[in-house]
Amino acid sequence: MHVTWKPLSAGILDFTAGFFTVFCAFLMLDGNTMLTTLHSSLGIAPKTGGIAMFILGFLGLIGGACSLSRRYWHLALTGSIANIIAPHGILGLVATIFIFMSREEFK
Q1: Is the pTM higher than 0.85?
Q2: Mean pLDDT of 48-76
Q3: 28, exposed or middle or buried, with CB in 10 Å at 0-12, 13-18, 19+?
Q4: Where are the alpha helices (DSSP H) in the chain?
Q5: Angle of helix 6-30 relative to helix 34-41, nearest 10 degrees?
Q6: Residue 1 falls within a domain, yes or no?
Q7: I want to staple 21 with a disulfide (CB 3.0 to 4.6 A). Which of 26, 29, 86, 90 is the partner?
Q8: Does residue 63 register a pLDDT over 90?
Q9: Domain span at residue 32?
């Protein structure tokens, strides 16, 4: 098995996107931010949006851990896809591409 830099980079990108998504979720759940106002103007309940963002961010953190350990390819991919849906989507998109390219490195 040839070890490359791709799972490591994907894990770092997933952790970064997951951390920021969880942070934004906590800000939304607090209710005193511009994110809350934005979601209210779009017709999304701030608490519901905050909970959804927290779940996506948590999945991203799990995916980052799986990618760094090069185990459980399906969980790493799930976390990257969750980060595509989250607000920091470009990080998740790049991480997903890296995970697809390095599938044979996972156990």
Answers
A1: no
A2: 91
A3: buried
A4: 6-30, 34-41, 46-69, 73-85, 89-101
A5: 80
A6: no
A7: 86
A8: yes
A9: 6-105
Using 50, 70 and 90 to split pLDDT, how confident is the model at 41?
low
DSSP letters along 41-53, please? HTT--HHHHHHHH
24 found inside a domain: yes
User: Tokens 């519901």 sit at which residue?
Assistant: 48
Q: Does a structural domain hold residue 31?
A: yes
Amino acid letter for position 33 = T
**Number of domains the chain is built from:** 1
* Torsion 31-36-40-43 (CA) sign: negative
Measure the CA angle with vertex 92, ends 89 and 93; round to 5°: 85
> How is residue 86 written in tokens?
């989250």
pLDDT at 34 over 80: no
Residue 28 domain-assigned?
yes
Long-range contacts of 77-85 (CB under 8 A, 24+ apart): 79/14, 79/18, 80/10, 80/14, 82/55, 82/56, 82/57, 83/13, 83/14, 83/17, 83/18, 83/21, 83/56, 83/59, 85/56
